[in-house]
Amino acid sequence: MVVTTIPYEERPQRNMANTARTEPLPELGDFPSLGESMVRLGFQSPAPSPIMRLPLEIHEKIWKETMLLELGNDPAIRVRNYIKSPATRPGFLPKSLLISKMVLREMHPVFVRLITFRTNSIGDNEYLRRYLDLPNGGRHNVRSLRFDFFDCFPLGLPINHDLALATSCKGLTTIQITLHWSRVHRTVDEIVSHYHLKKVLDCKSLTTFNLAKKGDFREEEEDKILMLASWVECAFQAQGQVVTCHVFPYRR
């Protein structure tokens, strides 16, 4: 058998490639759009989903009901359980948000408005701040915050970070703070001063202020916490704002 070797430069395929008809590159700014390129390559842009043709207000109602089916009717998130995950991709995001980037972009603000965020420490607070400061999140979308260790605020600190976070959420409507019975053995003025509670008056969208009692409240402590609730309502009323204050036992 005779084997004939054709030099690389003389191969027919190479000659065809070198002589194939080519078009000059387009000038700067003349490149076709992605849609035109797809058509030239034989692809067709996918038709938008019928849902996406509806007004945004209808989208948001659909997203809300979708998330309620997944999260339940009173969705709350313990931030503490997720602080080891990156703030850019927290583990508490529902699966329905992760269908596509487009869905995430539309659903995420709805999710933030729907959720009660629960914090137990300064670390939780800082993590929640980083998460809310990401694009398409926004503190302005937060509606409900719950501070389960609010009463652990140490004496003498100039800033209450829980209330600082609350006042930065301009659309906030509901706050819940927890007070252990041992923390109310003082006058209402002393409690207000210790926790910098006057700061809460900067929450201009607030409608509900909840006081959760932790521990065995006796008659004296019951009277004090009811007096504190009255102070909250009267302080808001003095600035022309109606806020209802509820007092109830702490629930995990």
Characterization of this structure:
This protein has 8 helices and 6 strands; from the N terminus they run αααβαβαβαβαβαβ. It is an alpha/beta fold and 252 residues long. The relative contact order is 0.08. Helix 7 (188-194) links the parallel strand 4 (174-180) and strand 5 (208-214). Helix content is 36%, strand content 12%. The protein has a 6-stranded parallel beta sheet, covered by helices on one side. The model has no long low-confidence stretch (mean pLDDT 84). The protein has a single domain, classed as TIM Barrel (Alpha-Beta Barrel), CATH 3.20.20.
H/E element sequence = HHHEHEHEHEHEHE
Mean pLDDT: 84
- As residue ranges, the low-confidence spans are none
Structural class call reads alpha/beta
Strand content: 5-15%
State the domain count. 1
DSSP, total strands: 6
End-to-end CA span: 87 Å
Largest sheet: 6 strands, parallel
Number of helices: 8
Helix content: 25-40%
Give a quick summary of the entry.
By secondary structure, this protein is an alpha/beta fold. The protein has eight helices and six strands; from the N terminus they run H-H-H-E-H-E-H-E-H-E-H-E-H-E. It starts with 11 loop residues before the first helix and ends with a strand.
